[in-house]
Predict the structure.
Amino acid sequence: MSLFKSNPFAGDSCPSRVAMFASGRPSLPFPHPWNYNEPIKILETFFVDADKESGPARDNRFLKIPFMAPVLVSRDPEMIRAILSATGDKPEQFDRDTLPSTGIARATGKDTLLYANGPMWRIQRKLAAPSFGKSTLFHPERFQEFEDTFRQTVIRRIEALKAYFAEHQTQTFRVKMEAEIKVVMLEMLTNNFFGAQIAYEEIRDRYAPALERVIDHIVKDTVINKIGIPVRQMPSLTREIAQAKKDYAVFEELTDLALAPRKAGRALWSQFKSDAPDEKLRSNVRVFLAGALEATTSFAAWAVAHLARHPDVQESVYEEVRQVDSYTPENLDQCRQLNFVLEETLRLTPSLYFLPRKATADTWVEAKDGRRMFIPKGTHILLDVWHANRLEDYWGAANTGYPADEFAPIRWERLCVKGYIPKNFLHFGFGHGARVCPGKFLGQLEVGLVVGAIVRTFKFNALNPDNRSRAGVSTKPEDGADVELQLR
Ligand code: HEM
């Protein structure tokens, strides 16, 4: 009996146990083939009835199945920060747990910045860092190329839209913005970041759809492919496997196109100093292509979905961006309202909704407020950023002036007036600590550019009142940011 009741954790922030089976919960507290496409519900299951409790156990829960390592789920912002700060390659630090990304590793390779831990991760991080640095990307000429590519694409899309308006004698157009955003994000990534020269139409019709299906396949593969055979080596027994094999082949083609400009040192390759042969870099290039596309699309699609439901906020961003004639990093930095919108978007609807960690040793972690938690070696840890960012007593009216579950960019204005220090108020939208997102500056610039230009060009309103989420590798608006557009 004690096997089922004992608590392997300890400390004044000791988590409480969730039952494996119980009625009245949104899901079972672990992924399986029938619930894997509703991961936010799985996380929610850990905190059903939690609000009736008080104390730190309210936000820290664990699941323990006999003879298996425990699973800790935390939505406690201070504990999340403490665990992220104690992640790295030093002895006894936490690893990034590879369990939730086995599908990603099968698709991209294991020796990547995302999947590797320990010394291999450190080598990869040092290699990649210069291409992503603020000083590299905040170079006006460098970013000018991103802006030019984007401007040309936007001009072509507006022309197409005007032709549609003329033909159909209308002034409005219904469109799922997520799909449009995905194509321009991939275009900037392949053509500006990697220096490839792929036509917009080819990205839209061939590469973006194949990559989208690969990413969907990765999610399913993580839960269902227990035998662990990469799709490339599977026989084409079903139509689904045959399609997946075709999509993976297109992904390889795209990886070749992204690697090709390396020889000539085009685009950000000029910052990359390594003698490693191209073959050694393939896995990381795949991760950057799929990961960056997924995260930037999610972030920008969410921002549009929120603005589409808040016309007043949309107007205040418009008043700001209409003055901007060129989206240089400095000009984007000055757009206060736009930056509050982006900050609030990542808080309320973070693209990466949980951060996985694993305890490499028996570890005591201490939060900034002095609370401590003992975590046994081998524990799988899910840092539940989605729910942490909605905790009322942390992000709610008392601290920020607005309810935690509301989209209110103005709360950031309030926080600024109160003299808050950003490092004390973290939403973990780009992670934190040694494994913080290296693509943060690139991502912020791209998303700022895309969202700023959309607001400047169009007025848009949501066609569904609810702004629900769906989640896979990242979160997205459930309706694909379905809006009605009108040219300004
Ligand atoms: C703008 C949208 C983006 C968001 C919201 C985002 C979010 C994140 C987060 C939260 C992490 C930390 C994961 C963890 O702690 O477990 C992360 C890591 C990472 N991101 Fe991003 N990211 C974005 C854009 C990008 C871009 C543009 C790239 C590359 C071109 C990129 C590449 C990576 C890589 C390689 C890691 C792993 C780093 C490591 O483990 O050392 N991300 N990202």
User: Anything to note?
Assistant: The mean pLDDT is 89.
